[in-house]
Design goal:
By secondary structure, this protein is of the alpha/beta class. The chain contains 6 helices and 4 strands. The strands form 2 sheets. Strands 1-2 form a two-stranded parallel sheet. A two-stranded parallel sheet has the order 3-4.
C-alpha cells in the first residue's frame, strides 16, 4: 500500500504525470527490489544509479535529465530525497545506508537544477531531525536549499 516511497508511483497511476517525465538520480543499487525496477521500466521512468551517475559525472546526468525534461514539460518540480546521502553525511534519514552520495555531489546537482529556468519549485523529503542529535543532517538540508536558491538567483 501507500508509503513514504510511493508518491511518484501514485502520481503515475493517477495519470497526473507520465513515467517518462520522471528522473531518479543516485539510486542505491542494492536497496531497490526487482519489482520496483520492473515497474520503473514498464512505465519508462528514467533513472541512474549512483554508480552510473559517478561514472558519467553527476553534473552530466543532472544536465541530461533537465534537457530531456525540457523537451517534454513546461515546468520541472524537484524533489530531493535526503536518503540519497551516505549515512555518514546524513544520519538523520529513515533509510540511511553506506555508499551513498557525498554532500558536495548533492550540492552541485541541486545548484545545477536550481539554475535551470524550468525548475520552478523544490521540496525535500526523508529528513528526520530526531534521528540525528548532532544536527549534521539538518545542516546538510539547509545547504541543499541554499544551493537551490543560489542556482535560482544566478539564472541567466
Amino acid at each position: 500500500g501507500p508509503s513514504n516511497g510511493t508518491p511518484i508511483r501514485n502520481l503515475i497511476e493517477s495519470g497526473t504525470i507520465e513515467g517518462k517525465n520522471v528522473w531518479n538520480i543516485g539510486l542505491h543499487g542494492f536497496y531497490n527490489s526487482k519489482s520496483l525496477k520492473e515497474y520503473a521500466d514498464t512505465h519508462k521512468v528514467n533513472y541512474a544509479t549512483l554508480l552510473q551517475a559517478r561514472k558519467t559525472g553527476i553534473s552530466c546526468i543532472v544536465e541530461r535529465a533537465l534537457d530531456d525534461l525540457a523537451k517534454n514539460v513546461d515546468v520541472i518540480y524537484l524533489t530531493v530525497d535526503m536518503d540519497v546521502l551516505d549515512v555518514s553525511y546524513a544520519p538523520g534519514v529513515p533509510a540511511g545506508t553506506t555508499g551513498g552520495m557525498r554532500t558536495d555531489e548533492l550540492f552541485e546537482a541541486i545548484y545545477i537544477a536550481g539554475s535551470h529556468p524550468l525548475v520552478q519549485a523544490m521540496d525535500m523529503v526523508c529528513l528526520d531531525p530526531l534521528r540525528d542529535k548532532s544536527g549534521i543532517t539538518v545542516k546538510a538540508g539547509v545547504h541543499v536549499f541554499l544551493n537551490f536558491l543560489t542556482g535560482f538567483a544566478n539564472r541567466k
